[in-house]
Every structure is written in C-alpha cells, then in structure tokens.
C-alpha cells in the first residue's frame, strides 16, 4: 500500500500504522526510541533514589508533599491515557471525527495535569524547596520536571497533528503519526506511575 | 598463594619473568619491586595473570605466523579458490573451554585477594588494639595531610610509618577527588570528597632499606593543573624509631635562636600563620587546616613535594609558587615579599625540625 | 521530477542530502578532520612528555590538550568514522535502497558535526575543557571558565545525533533487508553494526543524564554532586561508566565486523564459524553492560562489588577469544592476498590480542589497584582502540574507498602508511605498559628525572612521530588518488563476497536497479561461483521511490548550536537567555515545519534507470 492512496472505511487496513514500509519503520523506530527513553528515566530514578533523603537541612518529602493534589493529577493522567486509547480505536475504524474528539479530551486532561504540576511546584518553592536547596530538591525537580516537559511536548505534538490534519482526514501518511503520538502519551503515563510510586508514595513512607 | 605457585608448572616461566620485570624501574617507585605484603600479593597476581596471558599470546602468535606464511598467495595461484569451510564444532568448543579454565585459574586468587586486601576490621575504633596504627590521609590541591589520630599528631607531605606491620588508612579528599598511591608498597585507593575509604598497607623493612628508607607516593587521579606534581614521600622506619619520632612530634615547638630566623618567624606570624600551623599538635578542625602543617618542615624530603630540599629551592618556591606548581592555592595569598624577607622566612622554616 | 531538474550546487547538495552514500562521505570528511585534530593533540602531548621536566605544554594547557584528545578521538573521530563506513556499506550489504529514515540520518550527522564544532570553539573562547574525557564530577565542578560547559553542551548535542543514528541503523537492519537476507545470512559488518546500534540505544541515555546533571550543577545551581548539600560524586562515575564501557564495544564491535569482511575476502574463504561469530558479538554486547564498575575498582565500592565485577569482566575474554580463533581459522587453508586492508586486518590480530590480554589482567581487581590510572591503562586502551578500532578504520577506508569514491587508493603508498603506522603504534604504546608498572600515573603533564621513566617516554614519543608520518602519507595518497587514481570496477578487488560489490563503484543513487534476491551467506560470491555476472533480482524493473533532500536537518542542528551558546553564557551576559530561546525556537520551529509539510518523496523513472545502468556497465 502507498501512503498517497485515498482510502475509505472499507479499504482502510486493520493496522493503518504499519500498513506501509514508512509506517512500519516509524513504528519500530519509535519503540526503540522509547527503549532509550526508558533507560534515560531509569538513570534519573536511580539518581533520585540515591539522593532522596539528602535534604541538607531543607524541607523533606514528608513535610512537603500534598497527596490530594498529586492523587488528582495522577487520576487525570491515567484517564488521559485511556481516552487516547479510544482515539486510536476510532482511528482504526476510520472514524476521524471521533478520533479528534477523544484526542481533544486527552489534550484537555493533559493540560489540567500540567496545570496541577505547575501549581504544585509553585507551592513547594514557596515552602522553601528551591531548585538549589539540596541534592534532594535538585533531583526531585529534575526528575519530575523532565517528565513534565515530556507531557508538554506530547501535548503540543498531539495538538499539531490534530490541527494539521483537521481538514483532510485520515490516510496512511498521517495514521502512523497519530499512533506514535498516542504511544508516546502512554509512555509518559507509565513513567508517571513510577514517579507516583517512587517519588511520592515512598516519599510519604519516608 | 605462594605454596600454590610452587606446584604450578609454569614456575620456570615465572622466575624468568620475575627476573626480567625486576629490572624495571626504581626500588622506591616501581610496582615490579614490591616492598610489602600488599604489593607482594598484587605482584604475584600480576605474575600469574601475565603468565597465563603470555601463554595465550604465544599460542595465538604461533598459529598466526604459521597461517600467514603457509597460506599466503603464491605466484601462479592468483585464481585458486580454496575450499569454503563453514566451521568446526570440536575446534570451536576447544577454544571456548580452554579460556574458561584459564580464567577460573585467575578468578579464584583474584576474589580471595580482593577480600584480603579489604580486611580493615582491626582499625575498628572500639576494638582497636593500642599498637594498631591508624593514619588519616587527607588529600588537598596539591598536598597531603597525614594525621595520627591516636597520638594527636599531624604532619604533611612526608608520611612516617613503622615497618613490618599493617598500617591502616582512612583516606579522603577535602576538595576534588585524588587517589592515594605508593606504587612500591601497594595499590591505590581513591580519596573522595563525599566518603571515607579505608585500607591497609604493610612496609617491609628489608625492602625499605633497599629503597634507602624512602618510598615515593603519587596522586593517581587527575585533580587539576598540578596533578603531576602532587607527590609525597614515605619514610618507613623500624617500630622503635617510629615511636621515638611520634614522641618528638607530640612535644615539638618551634625553637628559634638564629636572629635571621627570628625575623623570619615574625614575617611568618604576620603572613602565613593564618593557614599554616608550625606545631604538629594542631587542635583546629580539618576545615580550618587549609595548608600543610609545617611542624617538622626542616626534616622534609622535598620542597613543595617535588623540588630538592634546600634553602635555594625553598626561596624559589616562596618567591613564585606558580612557577613550581601551577594552580596551587598558596599563590597570591601573602602579598609581595622582598628578597630579604624571603631569606629570613626560609631560614626560619628550615629550622622547624624534630629530628 | 527528473534527476536533471534537481541538479544544484555541490555545497547545497551536500547540505541538504539525505542519501546515505553522501552522508557517509560527510561523516568521513568531518570525522577525518577531527581525527587529524585529535592526532595533533596527541603529538603535542608526546612532545611535552619527551623528556623529564619539559615545559612545552604546562599544567592546565596540557590538561586541556589531553581532555580534548580523548574526547575528540572517541566522540568525534572514531564514532563518526565508523558511521561513515556503516552508512556507506550497510544499506548496500543488506540489499536496500537507503536507510529506514534518510531524514534522520542527515539529522544525526549534522547534530554530531555541530556538537564537535561547538566543543572545539572552546579553544578560542577562554580555553578548552580540562577534566579529562571522563570529566569526573568533583574536578569538573571546580574547573574555572567555560571549558567544561563546552564539553557538556557539545557532547549533549552530538550525543543526540549518535542516538538517532543508532536507532536508524537498528530499524534499517530489521525492516529493509532484501528478500532472502535472513538475519543469519547478514554479513558480519552488518551484524556488528546492528549490535553496536543497540548498545548506542541503551548506553547513550545514561551519558545524557550524567552530562545533564553536571550541566545543571554548573549552570543552573543544582546540587547533584556537591557533598556539602547532600550531593554525591560517585553517581556521576556510575552514570559515566554505564555509558563508557559499552562505548568501548560500540567502537570495537564494528571494527570486528570490518575485519571479518576483510579477512574473509582476501583469504577467499567464507568466515569460519559464522554462527559462533554472531553469537560472540551478541554476547559481548550483552556482557558489555555488566562490567562498568571495573573502571571504579579503586573508588571504594567494597570487596563484594569488586569481586563480582572482576569475574564478570573476565568472562568477556571468552567470546573475544572465540572471535580471534575464528579469524585465524578463516585464514587457515585460504589463499591470502596481502592488500593494504588485509595488512591492517592481519596485524590487528596480534595487536588486539595484546590489548585483550592486558584487559584480562586489569580485570583482576586487586592487581588493578596497581594498574588503575597509570600508563599501563593508557597502553591497554590504546592497544584496544588503536590496535582494534583505528586499524579497522584504516582497513575499512582502504577497502571500501573504491566503493565510496569510484577510485582505487594507491597500494604502494597504502603499504608505506601501514608500515609506518604499525611500527609507530607499537613503539609508542608497548613501552607504556612498563612505564605504568614502574610507577607513572596517567594524565600527568610532566615527570621528574631519576625515577627511571626517561627512556621509556622518549621511545614512546619517537613512536608518535612514526604514526604521524604514516597519516601524512595517507593524506598524500588520498590527494593522488582523487587526481589520478585508477577507476574502480564494481567488484573493485575482484574477490568481493557481499552485495555491495555487485553494484557499480560508486553505487548509483538508488543503489540497486532491482532489489536482489539473497540465496545465502556471501550472496554475491554465491552468484559468482555459479558463473553469473550479476545478482538475481527479486522484483521487476520499475520506478524507484526516493526521499526528497531537505535543509531542515542542518537548520535543526544549527538551532541547537546557537542555543548552546546562549545557555553557556546565560549567567554572564544578558543576551544569553534570549539567544538560548532563539536557538530553541529555530530547532523546534524546524521540527514543526517537518511535521506539517507533507513529504512524499519522488520517483526515478524506469527509463532513467535503464539509461544509468547502461552507462554504469560501460564505464
């Protein structure tokens, strides 16, 4: 199949993201990329674990963390992962409108998550946990902040795709792009699950 | 380990190698002329591994030379196409198994020695025997401080240790990473700025005599412009002599009689005393000890770790430390001194002796 | 669009190219340039160390030269030169028209290039980095000026490039193989490229993190490595070596691949024990991740960690040994022709065995307390990197030069280069083993007289001049070849075994007019043995789809280059932050453009291909 072909719901393949060689390459390449990203975050997690109680007299995680906010943020992000699954489901069914709708919801949830995270950082800074306060503070902001920047990048990626393709619908050229964006979004979600566990839950237990 | 070596068939190869290698380097510096228990252990591991490896190199070289000569293209064979061989399981298994066996032979003593050399239980503070000597080594840009915590004595640049017994070290750095290494006596350990490393060394009396009583120590971790010049010296003396030295150090105070030296003392007390102490007993915390203790400066082996120990060189150092040790922390801390002042200072410093 | 309509100026062509063969040439030129710079730095150091108490390069300047030598050689010479050969050869070897992501291929090159240029800008802007290629945290935090920042940002940029290239090769080798080219029929060089790319994928992210943390500490007030505020410098050492050790295999595995090709070709035999060779490569790649702490035996990790890592390290000797013997037995019974590439390949075997056995010696942790950070280690890794990787690069360059440029290099000059380089190499580095054992630490800018180190250092310096002479002759050879070199046939050496020798030299833009059908290992050799002229096609002749050239990879990389200057100076000048943002806007803006502009590529028509193939056959 060629990328430029015009397709209908009947001719649209079951796995549009891998129907062309280009799509297959992107699919595989992106999985490899996520493998590298995993190692990147693993290195940061290891660093954080080594430094998480090195507060140098500054605020500790038990004193700071506001679990309700974090919990809501977690729920938002988990839900957004689910909505992006719906979006891809509709993509595979060649239902462009519904896909756009669900991606739209995903973006809104992601934005809400990002807002909460910024609010959270703002609060912590005001309670005396500056970036340069201690090894713990540096490690915390770097790990969680890098995840946050991934969220921001993912959001702008999905938005760009939605706007760019708003008028022309699905084809085999953009289907892999949507698919990968959602894959990236899932990855961000999985990283957050680990952050929630390692940074917040373990931080509360001490 | 030694017994085990005797039964080893490569003994002859060993002795030849040992002879060859012993010709290398100076007895006060070379790892190939080990001068203590630790260096001995490491040397025998080095010999064992070298022997195995020489064996491997010889086998490979023989096959290699044979193949290259025997199967080179000869005139008239330009178009000959040799038989295409896929492989040979028996051969492939052979050259998998033999290396494994060789490695096991090396791995066992390696693991054993790793644990032996890390045995620092006797330095445990609560259970420490009163004769067990512990030295705190603190590495700084570009000088070494040696503290004898059980005696309250501090010296720098020249480490003094008793021979024929295990000496235990706490090693750390006060600024950047360094590494504490006395090649002839044993391997190095890093001086980190975030934790304290512990290990032990033993200095052999006979080997110390061969090296004229002085071993050379080096910094082995890149630490800045003068990394190459961050040398120290080790005086290894019999236990009794060591005890006497410690006693003298405990009670040492500068005794200045010479009038020129007295002048020097005055200058010192004005410009230098903020960083340098002149008595080996220095109660200040280590953060305050930002420069070498000069309590027994007159007895030192070297000026600034690298220059021969005489007044001439001392003056050179005081006049322009940067030209001797680039990047050192003393440059520019004491203003401009006249030649006369430097002469007086040198006289004074040279008079600081315990021996 | 026809080929004629796309004729542009040569410079614009190379700035925008996404053709793997042209990118290979870019890598070769840029990597070669950095190799010369790194070599010059090495020569300067050897001049300083020629005699005791020399004052040619003192203190910090020596440290800068030493740091830049190591950094340049590893990241900006060895890696890109290998990428040059991989780009030139791998797609041809697997019977593909291009790599999986031509655009990313170009991006990878430009990121590497700008990273290298950025790093070298430090020479003119207040001094180069001076904390060694490892840039250990405590020293690199202490280092004044911006040298270290140039190192951090430059490596970060080029690191992205390397990662991208790694992913590209992984995907290319998985999805782009011609019909019949199963994994176990892939040429060894392709196999090693595959494994090395996997190592890049998993080893570079820890480096990225290590450099990131160091940069945050130095430029943004973080405290990862400041013990006073709870930081810990050992973390940096771990992160660096989790990258650093696999990096050795990233370099040396493709080198093994090159030698496997060269030795089999010029022995006129198939590779002995092909499957065990593949197995050994994969095993080495895997074990490469399990041994990083052997670079940290003296850090004080304790006897348990040291013992475990010592034994783990030793195990790598087994697969490496398998490879050595397989090479020897490939030559056994062969008809060995000593061309220039073969000379490097043959002499590699004993040279590399030397480096390998000293590696096992170093693995013995208690003995390593003596070797560590001495000239013994310097000798060891130069035996591995020069005796392995540089020999391979020289072999590979001579071997595939006709395929890349369509002209042969002069064999007589090639052999002179070889002799000079080989003699110089052993002269320089063999004696350094003994210097280390005799008590000479590494990374020292000088040594004192009367410590028994004078003669050895002099010999070593003389050797360095031999190597320099060899490289100069090589450059002369390149110039002569480009002016009056003999035109290369498709099967330039007459004994080619793999697919790249079936297409004209240099290969046409589309590589294969028809994608070939692969019927076994050494596909081209098989066809030749059956008396056929060319390959068996797997598809009818038709239009060929090609990717469009693009200037965006260049612009994306340029944006990061600009941005890096901004970040570097953002604490010193008020223009820092705006410049940093401007650079990022350029980069992300270009990525945005790439995302929204549809790029379907173009087709080369069948008639044009028939025309070109005719011409290729005639010439």
TrEMBL record, chain A:
Molecular function as annotated in GO: cytochrome-c oxidase activity
Record's keyword terms, sorted: Cell membrane, Membrane, Transmembrane, Transmembrane helix
Primary subcellular site in the record, as a coarse category: membrane
Membrane-traversing stretches: 28-49, 69-89, 101-119, 139-163, 183-203
Protein's GO biological process: aerobic electron transport chain
Domain Heme-copper oxidase subunit III family profile: 28-204
Subcellular location(s) per record: Cell membrane
CDD domains xref list: Ubiquinol_oxidase_III
Any one cellular-component term (Gene Ontology): plasma membrane
Similarity section: Belongs to the cytochrome c oxidase subunit 3 family.
Protein name from the UniProt record: Cytochrome c oxidase subunit 3
UniProtKB/TrEMBL annotation, chain B:
Origin superkingdom: Bacteria
Residues annotated as domain Cytochrome oxidase subunit II copper A binding: 130-248
Cofactor: heme c; Cu cation
Sequence ranges assigned to domain Cytochrome c in this UniProt record: 259-353
Primary location: membrane
Subcellular location: Cell membrane
Primary role: Subunits I and II form the functional core of the enzyme complex. Electrons originating in cytochrome c are transferred via heme a and Cu(A) to the binuclear center formed by heme a3 and Cu(B).
Name of this protein: Cytochrome c oxidase subunit 2
Species this protein is from: Parageobacillus thermantarcticus
Automatic annotation (TrEMBL), chain C:
Molecular function as annotated in GO: cytochrome-c oxidase activity; heme binding; metal ion binding
Reactions catalysed, as given in the entry: 4 Fe(II)-[cytochrome c] + O2 + 8 H(+)(in) = 4 Fe(III)-[cytochrome c] + 2 H2O + 4 H(+)(out)
Transmembrane segments: 24-47, 67-90, 102-125, 150-176, 188-216, 239-259, 271-292, 304-329, 341-363, 375-395, 416-438, 458-480, 551-569, 575-597
Membrane topology type: Multi-pass membrane protein
Keywords assigned: Cell membrane, Copper, Electron transport, Heme, Iron, Membrane, Metal-binding, Respiratory chain, Translocase, Transmembrane, Transmembrane helix, Transport
Cellular localization per UniProt: Cell membrane
GO annotations of cellular component type: plasma membrane
Domain of life: Bacteria
EC number: 7.1.1.9
UniProt-listed GO biological process terms: electron transport coupled proton transport; oxidative phosphorylation; respiratory electron transport chain
Metabolic or biological pathway: Energy metabolism; oxidative phosphorylation
Domain Cytochrome oxidase subunit I profile: 6-519
InterPro entries to which the protein is assigned, alphabetical: Cyt_c_oxase-like_su1_dom (IPR023616), Cyt_c_oxase-like_su1_sf (IPR036927), Cyt_C_Oxase_1 (IPR000883), Cyt_c_Oxase_su1_BS (IPR023615), Cyt_c_oxidase_su1_bac (IPR014241)
UniProt cofactor(s): heme; Cu(2+)
Database matches in SUPFAM superfamilies: Cytochrome c oxidase subunit I-like (SSF81442)
Family as reported in the entry's similarity comment: Belongs to the heme-copper respiratory oxidase family.
Described function: Cytochrome c oxidase is the component of the respiratory chain that catalyzes the reduction of oxygen to water. Subunits 1-3 form the functional core of the enzyme complex. Co I is the catalytic subunit of the enzyme. Electrons originating in cytochrome c are transferred via the copper A center of subunit 2 and heme a of subunit 1 to the bimetallic center formed by heme a3 and copper B. This cytochrome c oxidase shows proton pump activity across the membrane in addition to the electron transfer.
Protein name listed in UniProt: Cytochrome c oxidase subunit 1
């Amino acid at each position: 199949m060629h990328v430029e072909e015009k397709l209908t719901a009947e001719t649209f393949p079951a796995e549009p993201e891998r129907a062309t060689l280009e799509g297959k390459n992107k699919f595989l390449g992106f999985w490899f990329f996520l493998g590298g990203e995993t190692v990147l975050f693993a290195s940061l997690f290891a660093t954080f674990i080594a430094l998480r109680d090195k507060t140098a007299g500054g605020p500790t995680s038990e004193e700071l963390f506001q679990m309700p906010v974090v919990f809501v943020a977690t729920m938002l992000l988990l839900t957004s992962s689910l909505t992006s699954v719906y979006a891809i489901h509709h993509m595979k069914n060649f239902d462009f409108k519904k896909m756009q709708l669900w991606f739209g919801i995903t973006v809104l949830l992601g934005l809400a998550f990002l807002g909460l995270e910024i609010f959270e950082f703002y609060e912590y800074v005001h309670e005396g946990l500056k970036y340069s306060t201690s090894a713990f503070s540096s490690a915390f902001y770097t790990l969680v902040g890098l995840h946050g920047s991934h969220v921001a990048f993912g959001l702008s990626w999905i938005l760009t795709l939605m706007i760019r393709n708003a008028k022309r619908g699905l084809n085999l050229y953009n289907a892999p792009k949507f698919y990968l964006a959602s894959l990236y979004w899932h990855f961000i979600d999985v990283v957050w699950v680990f952050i929630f566990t390692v940074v917040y839950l373990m931080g509360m237990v001490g | 380990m030694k017994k085990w070596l005797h039964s080893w068939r490569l003994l002859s190869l060993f002795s030849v190698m040992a002879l060859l290698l012993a010709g290398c380097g100076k007895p006060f510096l070379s790892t190939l002329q080990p001068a203590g228990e630790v260096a001995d252990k490491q040397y025998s591991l080095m010999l064992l591994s070298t022997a195995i490896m020489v064996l491997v190199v010889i086998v490979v070289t023989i096959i290699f030379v044979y193949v290259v000569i025997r199967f080179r293209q000869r005139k008239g064979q330009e178009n000959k196409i040799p038989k295409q061989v896929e492989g040979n399981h028996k051969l492939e298994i052979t050259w998998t198994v033999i290396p494994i066996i060789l490695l096991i032979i090396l791995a066992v003593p390696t693991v054993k020695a790793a644990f032996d050399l890390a045995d620092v239980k006797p330095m445990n503070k609560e259970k420490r025997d009163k004769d067990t000597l512990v030295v705190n080594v603190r590495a700084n840009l570009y000088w070494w401080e040696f503290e004898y915590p059980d005696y309250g004595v501090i010296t720098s640049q020249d480490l003094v240790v008793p021979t024929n017994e295990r000496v235990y070290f706490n090693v750390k750095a006060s600024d950047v990473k360094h590494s504490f290494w006395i090649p002839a006596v044993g391997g190095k350990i890093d001086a980190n700025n975030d934790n304290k490393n512990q290990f032990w060394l033993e200095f052999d009396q006979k080997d110390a005599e061969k090296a004229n009583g002085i071993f050379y120590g080096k910094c082995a971790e890149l630490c800045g412009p003068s990394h190459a010049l961050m040398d120290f010296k080790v005086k290894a003396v019999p236990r009794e002599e060591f005890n006497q030295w410690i006693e003298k150090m405990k009670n040492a105070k500068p005794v200045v009689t010479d009038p020129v030296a007295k002048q020097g003392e005055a200058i010192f007390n004005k410009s230098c005393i903020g960083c340098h102490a002149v008595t080996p007993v220095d109660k200040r915390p280590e953060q305050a000890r930002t420069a070498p203790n000069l309590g027994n400066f007159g007895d030192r082996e070297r000026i600034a770790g690298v220059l021969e120990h005489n007044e001439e060189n001392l003056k050179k150092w005081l006049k322009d430390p940067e030209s001797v040790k680039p990047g050192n922390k003393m440059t520019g801390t004491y203003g401009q001194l006249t030649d006369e002042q430097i002469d007086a200072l040198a006289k004074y410093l040279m008079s600081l002796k315990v021996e | 669009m026809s080929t004629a309509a796309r004729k542009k100026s040569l410079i614009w062509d190379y700035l925008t190219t996404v053709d793997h063969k042209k990118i290979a040439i870019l890598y070769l030129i840029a990597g070669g340039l950095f190799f010369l710079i790194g070599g010059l730095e090495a020569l300067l150091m050897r001049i300083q160390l020629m005699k005791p108490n020399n004052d040619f390069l003192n203190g910090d300047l020596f440290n800068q030269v030493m740091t830049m030598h190591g950094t340049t050689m590893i990241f900006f010479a060895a890696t890109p030169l290998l990428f040059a050969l991989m780009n030139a050869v791998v797609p041809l070897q697997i019977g593909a028209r291009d790599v999986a992501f031509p655009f990313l291929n170009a991006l990878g090159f430009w990121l590497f290039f700008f990273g290298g240029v950025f790093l070298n800008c430090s020479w003119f802007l207040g001094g180069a980095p001076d904390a060694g290629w490892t840039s250990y945290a405590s020293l690199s935090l202490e280092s004044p000026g911006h040298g270290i920042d140039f190192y951090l940002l430059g490596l970060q940029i080029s690191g992205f490039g390397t990662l991208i290239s790694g992913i590209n090769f992984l995907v290319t080798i998985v999805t782009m193989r011609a019909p019949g080219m199963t994994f176990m029929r892939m040429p060894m060089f392709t196999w090693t490229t595959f494994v090395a790319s996997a190592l890049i994928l998993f080893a570079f992210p820890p480096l990225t993190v290590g450099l990131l943390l160091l940069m945050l500490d130095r430029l943004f007030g973080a405290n990862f490595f400041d013990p006073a505020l709870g930081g810990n410098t050992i973390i940096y050492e771990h992160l660096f070596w989790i990258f650093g050790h696999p990096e050795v295999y990233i370099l040396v595995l493709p080198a093994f691949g090159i030698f496997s090709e060269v030795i089999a070709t010029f022995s006129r035999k198939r590779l002995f024990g092909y499957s065990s060779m593949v197995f050994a490569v994969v095993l080495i790649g895997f074990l490469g991740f399990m041994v990083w702490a052997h670079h940290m035996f003296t850090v004080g990790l304790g006897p348990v960690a040291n013992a475990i890592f010592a034994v783990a390290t030793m195990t790598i000797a087994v697969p490496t040994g398998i490879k050595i013997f397989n090479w020897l037995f490939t030559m056994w019974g062969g008809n060995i022709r000593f061309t220039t590439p073969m000379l490097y390949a043959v002499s590699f075997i004993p040279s590399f065995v030397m480096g390998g056995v000293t590696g096992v010696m170093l693995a013995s942790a208690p003995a390593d307390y003596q070797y560590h950070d001495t000239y013994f280690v310097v000798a060891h890794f130069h035996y591995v990197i020069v005796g392995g990787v540089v020999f391979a690069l020289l072999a590979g360059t001579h071997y595939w030069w006709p395929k890349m440029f369509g002209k042969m290099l002069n064999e007589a000059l090639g052999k002179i280069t070889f002799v000079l380089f080989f003699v110089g190499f052993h002269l320089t580095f063999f004696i350094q083993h003994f210097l280390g054992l005799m008590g000479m630490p590494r990374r020292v800018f000088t040594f004192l007289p009367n410590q028994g180190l004078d003669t050895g250092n002099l010999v070593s310096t003389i050797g360095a001049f031999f190597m320099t002479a060899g490289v100069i002759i090589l450059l002369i050879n390149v110039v002569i070849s480009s002016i009056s070199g003999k035109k290369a046939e498709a099967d330039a050496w007459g004994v080619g075994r793999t697919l790249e020798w079936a297409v004209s030299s240099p290969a046409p833009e589309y590589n294969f007019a028809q994608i070939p059908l692969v019927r076994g290992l050494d596909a081209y050799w098989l066809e030749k043995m059956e008396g056929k002229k060319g390959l068996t096609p797997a598809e009818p002749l038709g239009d060929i789809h090609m990717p469009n050239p693009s200037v965006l990879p260049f612009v994306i990389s340029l944006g990061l280059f600009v941005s890096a200057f901004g970040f570097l100076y953002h604490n010193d000048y008020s223009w820092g932050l705006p410049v940093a943002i401007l650079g990022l806007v350029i980069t992300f803006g270009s990525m945005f453009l790439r995302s929204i502009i549809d790029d379907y590529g173009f087709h080369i028509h069948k008639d044009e291909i028939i025309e070109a193939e005719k011409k290729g056959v005639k010439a």
